[in-house]
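SEVERITY: medium
COMPONENT: batch folding queue
REPORTER: lab tech (J.R.)

DESCRIPTION
The queue accepted two submissions in a row. Attaching both inputs and their returned structure tokens so the on-call engineer can compare them side by side.

ATTACHMENT 1
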Amino acid sequence: MDLDVIVIGAGLTGLACTLRLQQGGLRAGIIEAADRPGGRIATDQQEGFLLDRGFQVLQTWYPEARQLLDYAALDLRPFYPGALVRVGNRFHRVSDIWRHPERLPEMLGSPIGSLGDKLRLLALRRRALQGSIADLYARPEMTATRLLDELGFSQRIQERFFKPFFAGVFFEPDLAVSSRAFEFVFRAFALGDTALPARGMAEIPRQLSTRLLPDSIRFGARVERLLDGEVLLDSGERLRARAIVVATDGTEAARLLGVASKPMRGTTCFYYAAPRPPFDGPDLVLNGTGHGPINSLLCPSNLSSAYAPAGQSLVTVNCFGTDADPETLEPPVRVQLRDWYGEAVDHWRRLAVYRLPAALPVQAPPVTAPARPVRMKDWLWVCGESMAPPSIHWALSSGSQTAEALIDALQSERLAERP
């Protein structure tokens, strides 16, 4: 590879970085250990079903995603703005009444919280939408649960709505996450749709990779270590470039840079083939009962028929953590599913189970938005989740901003080299 810049990692950060570098006229290419682009964002095909690897969605409001992705080509399928929450022995709908004001009577009568709680939801929405993203990340920081306490939310709505909904986003059952990260996600839910590409989440990195120049990604090449201006592959091959960008996940970046890695949160996901879906409509189902192993459930085939073969449905069940062996965890999952949906669950056939111990970095305080690209040495740059909050927006933004800074730096150095 005769390159100006070698980017390590073909996740969203590496793809965005390389795309912008190439647009800026630099010869940039990616070294990727896996056999596909996307990093954690992956979609497997099995028996005609599309299995997104873990609970993954796209928030359409994300500014960087709107700029870099072709939403029409992704054929996005939105979830209903709200959720079906299991409380007691039945499901109750929680709706975004800004988008569905006709649901106000139903929302007011639901048992997820008091009338005061529901009015406070409007105040929280107004707070989360105030100011720029930079303003949001400059606010005094605490845990999300402390913020909800200070805003006056009852334990009932925290246990029945906030924890199952937002803890499922962060893979943190107690929602002990940064209030800044919490408000950023709340803003995303309020201003855009939560959606899936019609043919799976892997369409997002695939779309970005097709915009790169031909042969820009070298798959199956694992970086053993970094040398002075060089990349040493585990095959023994050495690659040199004017600049090297580490755009891997946080754990791999820590290995390459010789620093401590961030703690991670995990999730276990079960995938079932069902003769028919347990409910109609593009809903996310939350467990607000306070007991049982399930956090959330969705039917991707309700959003897009491509997720399942004709005449079948795909049901995805998400549980916190990876401590329990899946074979031990599944029986209580089945018991809870049968309590919710009856004997029909007995006819659900397990397709797969994914145990993902490093699904997301912990987002406990302190959490800050990336202020600037990180240049560790003259030739070494770092971006991605080791330097930015974990989300599709920040992954794309970190890659793009690093590329912009690198283009400026190399252009300045070339001008300085001229006689």
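ATTACHMENT 2
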Amino acid sequence: MGRDTIRIACGQGFWGDRLDAPIEQVRRGPIDYLMLDYLAEVTMSIMQKQRSRDPSQGYARDFVPLLQEIFPDIVERDIRVLSNAGGVNIEACRDGLMEAAREAGVGGRVRIGTVIGDDMLDRLGELIDDGHALTNMDDGRPLSEVLNRVQSANAYIGAAPIVEALKQDARVVVTGRSTDTALTYGPMIHEFGWAPDEWDRIAHGIVAGHINECGAQASGGNCLVDWESIPDLADIGYPIVEAESGGTFVLTKHDGTGGRITPAIVKEQILYEMGDPCEYITPDGVADFTTISLDADGPDRVKVSGVKGAPRTDQLKVSISYNAGYKAVGTLVYGWPDAVAKAQRADQVLRERLDRLGLAFDVIRTEFVGWNATHGALVGPPAEDVPEVELRVAVRAAERAPVDRFTREIAPLILSGPPSVTGFAGGRPRVQEIVAFWPALIDRDQIESRLRVEVVEA
């Protein structure tokens, strides 16, 4: 503690982001912290399925070899790493990191902190019996309606255990379903010694975390503003929060990297996943996004200030996933001439055959990719014949059997439907289990996070 300014770099915006981005953040310029965000709502259910098949799975597996490569760098450069890569199997992730640190030759010089307590899956029945309905925030249904189909349940925990881990000199801190933003504002609270009720400063940290959490989306990736002129996207620099003790921060990136950081691009990221702009709620406080002030602070530097905050709520959000049936998606590509008409006729034939088989689906949805898939019914008949179009048909049902039969009815259209099929993309469709999201709230006192900090043995 005691520094007036720290640099917190983002190296991953989701599980599947660029593998070399964290390495470049560590090696291409000075940083104090590296945060890696791997989790989305559906990711937790994917990890839970992996763990059910193999007890050693259930976390972001590419996190461990990444750390093995950069362990010597972060020790030499005195960089700390924070990540929610632990998923639903934080202990297995910790074990992997311990071995990776020894293999990297930093045994005895690294402390690893792990935070558990967010996983509520085994407690759901007990909580419901005790009067916690875990009502769906979108439609008001009690969780008891789908309890036997729940696959994962995790509360969004805040920065307190992260701050404590840093206080205990953890070089790497791994959590499960931490709120994404805490991976950025946790170091700010630790370094600057903010009190838990300094709401305006915490609100600045929340905004910093929100901008930082999606990786290169804040530095020119996936942006609409002058996207054609974004320089060197192949070598795009990921964002870095340069934070001051009072809360004000500058968003920037390493010199010599591609991409761009401007107030307009930062505004796009601020609006991403936005609900009520006056109440951006996290476990540690509430930020009013309507009070944010953005100012250019030089090339690829945007200063963020003026953020107002409010006290934290007495509840935590819970991310629950459950089985909601089965689906399959089949595709065929039709070529010129009359590509759209052929695809439309094929869709009609397919639906008639499904009706004759007596198959019941909750939904049958058709798109004609290359003509109306992006804008749907807003697009009328093609002004002129398109050279090719992909027929994409998706079905959904509560039971697997009708979906499985649907997957056998696509290929026959090649020889028993309209002419000029040019591609049977991906072969026979695959039946997939539908994982639905159930957002809920739980009283804060029902969740207790636990921290463990260990030295890697030499």
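NOTES FROM REPORTER
Residues 243 and 249 are 4 Å apart (CA to CA).
No errors were logged for either attachment.
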